Amino acid sequence: MSDILIIGGGVIGLLTARELAAGGAQVTLVEMGGTGRQASWAGGGILSPLYPWRYPGSVTALAAWSQQVYPELCTELFDETGIDAEYTRSGLLILDPEEHESALAWAETEQIRLDVIAREDIKTKEPGLEIPGTSALWFPEVGQIRNPRLTKALRIAINKRIDIREHEEVLELRTESGRITGARTTAGQIDTERVIVCTGAWTAQLLEKLGRKPHIRPVRGQMILFFAKPGQIHHVTLFRERYVIPRKDGRVLIGSTLEDTGFDKRTTAEAKEELYRIAVDLFPLLKRTPIEDHWAGLRPASPSGIPYIGPYPSVEGLFVNAGHFRNGLVTGPASARLIADLILGREPILPPSFYRLDANRD
Q1: Is beta strand 163-166 parallel, antiparallel or unpaired with respect to 27-31?
Q2: End-to-end CA distance of the chain
């Protein structure tokens, strides 16, 4: 019998398992598919909220804490596993001119380095970019990671420290006299005194059987991948809600759509065409570059993008760490640390009241 059962093996579940194991807990993690194969694999890996000034301070706080620890986290994972998550401080260019005033005010408040750069400086940074305006916002300290490699490294790093059970779906949570007692899965019954639900877009489905569910819904996002050459594109570029991400090996990701399609993960020709058009409009050199892949993932959308991190009301021993919407990767380390602090009785890194299930998210 483990001390703690974690349901969900995406980046949130894996990071949470790592934190708890480091704190001395005995942990079992159950994942209905393969670890890291849902939204954590499908995302882009930008280590910043897109247009971060649009988010409440509670999201900024999680992102800021995580951004500080990511370099060390990726180094530790490489030392433990030999897998390079490719943390790269590639910087972020934002080309939307109407965002400048809001962005500069936010950056001054949060003490984040942000520059407004002119057309000639943009061209110096990105010679292949077809610049849509006369200036851009430049976040030089924003990094990125290669998220499939991050989740793979996390999986290997914790493999000997916790019990990982893949391709096992949790059918229901078991309670008795207002306490969690475990879960029933497709493989049988798991007894435990504490459960953490880290099931992303599927969280509301699992918890609604207990009478109260968080406001989390799936939002489909589609992306395409170009088989480009190294050095053609240098920085993450954002324009009109769409981003371009260059990897170290030259591959270039373009994303992402926002579609309310329920749990439908199918890709569409319309989205592929839209993303391709945006990509080649910004970077005409991609017209000569083959598309290597096209996929979709389901983001766990929550009100104002604030995740639910904390105890589930009315069921002792049940906790939730889910609803990170588009920011699961950038806020993951802080979210995992915060839920571990609450469960292990440590001083929390951030005020937990903002993330409670009964907090006001309007």
Answers
A1: parallel
A2: 40
